Amino acid sequence: MSNAHPxxxxxxxxxxxxxxxxxxxxxxxxxxxxLDAAQRTVLLWDxxxxxxxxxxxxxxKEAPHVLRFDGEVLIDGxxxxxxxxxxxxxxxxxxxAPATDPRARPVxxxxxxxxxxxxxxxxxxxxxxxxxxxxxxxxxxxxxxPVPVPGQTIEDVAAAEALFLETVIACHPQAEGKPFVIGNCxxxxxxxxxxxxxxxxxxxxxxxxxxxxxxxxxxxRNPMRYSGGLLGGSALTALTGDxxxxxxxxxxxxxxxxxxxxxxxxxxxxxxxxxxVDDEETRYLEFERWWGGHVLLNAEEMQWIxxxxxxxxxxxxxxxxxxxxxxxxxxxxxxxILCFCSEGDNITPPQQALGWILxxxxxxxxxxxxxxxxxxxxxxxxxxxxxxxxxxxARKEYAEFVQNIDFIDCLPPGLYEAVFRPRxxxxxxxxxxxxxxxxxxxxxxxxxxxxxxxxxxxxxAAAARLSEINLGLYRSFVQPWVRLMTLAPVAEALxxxxxxxxxxxxxxDQTPGAGVLAGVAEAVRGERRPCSPDNPFxxxxxxxxxxxxxxLNAWRxxxxxxxxxxxxxxxxxxxxxxxxGLRGSEGTATRRPGADPEHERFVHERIADLRRRVAEGGxxxxxxxxxxxxxxxxxxxxxxxxxxxxxxxxxxxxxxxxDAFKAMxxxxxxxxxxxxxxxxxxxxxxxxxxxxxxxxxxxxxxxVADADGxxxxxxxxxxxxLDALFRGATAAPARAALPKLSPVQES
Length: 747
Description:
Layout: H1 25-59, E1 71-76, E2 86-91, E3 107-110, H2 128-134, E4 139-144, H3 154-171, E5 180-184, H4 186-197, E6 205-208, H5 227-230, H6 235-243, E7 247-249, H7 251-260, H8 262-275, H9 277-291, E8 296-298, H10 299-310, E9 337-342, H11 350-360, H12 364-369, E10 373-379, H13 386-389, H14 391-403, H15 405-410, E11 414-422, E12 434-440, H16 443-447, H17 454-477, H18 479-485, H19 488-496, H20 502-506, H21 514-526, H22 536-571, H23 574-579, H24 597-612, H25 619-631, E13 636-638, H26 639-650, H27 658-674, H28 676-681, H29 691-706, H30 713-726, H31 743-746
Parallel strand pairs: 3-4, 3-5, 5-6, 6-9, 9-10, 10-11
Antiparallel strand pairs: 1-2, 2-4, 7-8, 11-12, 12-13
């Protein structure tokens, strides 16, 4: 009996044996996890059921969109002489938003027609539209219907958007400046094309995540740029449009996006909903309402896009002509162009967003000679959709862009990078959480981001040439038969069975048994019992998920490497290039367009005029030239500098309009660029005779120079020189004559 186990102690509360807890713990963890997993599975399927209901309701509307802001349709494009499925909407500020400033320039947001429906720019409060309304700007939205007007073309859409901008300008006669136009993704190239043809309609232009130089990229990344070549070019696009009865299904574009990241499409996205179904349901359904809102394009529209942009890459080399014979040359744009892109974007990498600058310009002097201001900003990690839907991006980048749009409009011609830094201690809180500065850059800074070699360009040119051949063969021998055999019911059935649509169609309240699922899900929500976050089975589930992502990412990387290798093995072959006629001239693949003789004459005449008028102007011009001279020491200025300039402008008894102020700044900059020594020396003769007046003007210069808190020796030296000029001390003698510039220097 001495070896017998003692009897278990009885629980005073329950009067039952109290067994040691440790042996039961694994079983309890397993039971908790299985109950939690079963409940999450039911809730997951119920969310998918609700997604199907939402899809059917959304696509059943005449004008489905995901805007969270109310608006008034001003122009329905279907009523125009050349009807299109686009429309202009005036956004109504929500309750609690600041009052609209009648002098603030209007903001016009153009959404991309790239497979999904409109509204992503106003998808949430923290969005492009939300930031514009918060800053007191009147806001307009250009959206579209899911079905195109038969026969509409890309040029018809451009003509409609020109009319929209004319209407917006007419609605705001008091506004200081033309509209600030934002083009997202595929809308970016459309906006820039229109700006090249109708530059007088635009204020500053922001293109966000917009591919403009489609061949550009770096090896080991950006596999989407190889797709056109490996699919044989745009003949497949023509076939798809013909099988659709003259309509191209935007669901194919959505599927291309999803194929870029199979780990997210096949695992992370559905698993994220399953693992966090209690918290993710609302966000998931909100996003899926847009992601599943597939739209259509006319086959002719899509063919134009693929031939001229995706495969042909003609926009960045001024090789697109309108029906009337006008050349679409981005160098004709007169408004500042702001390019916002991200290193984390595998749809529009920085090389495709910025490569057009290298395609069109020889150097920064070339940019200035065309009177253009180009600003770029590269986000460190935002994905393609994050550029449009991320609240953090909206509160930082878009808020700063909108708040500083007049600053951007007044930047002198050149190339700049927008750099964001946290607001320094002691700075005015009204400036926001960040301070943006615009720092001068050269084309070498764009090249440093990576890009194509001459051999790469020749390979893409070979793919474009083969695309033209295949398209010609298809149109001659195959297209007539396909069109003859494709009936409208067949085209409709093919669209309904598209793999991107089926998941939305498969489960909804119209599915047999869906009512039972809804009832069970409601009961589960009432009895929901999530397991503990440290449950070992839940932790094992997370590890398994990580392994699945790793495996799918490895498969993606292997696929992308094989695609790139095959592309260059085929189109990089000298034999293939010779067969396609690309080895007859070393300049065949060169993309930079030639110089315009008329523009060159204008530049020479402009330089001669500036030489003659280097000493012309009064105190206003003297102060502007002095400020630009000081800022030139660091080749940068931030928004505090411009805020100070704006305050000083407001104190002017006869203030200039923003356009006149902008023109004056540009002229003073060009005087400094032509001959800095003589331009600075001439300041003394532009000042008033009264010493007190000169000192007051110099105080204004000092306040602007000190506004951004920059204190470097070069600025102090320039400020000391200007101090002597403004106080009337002897200045350095001006040169007897300006040096003769070579044609390259002059341009």
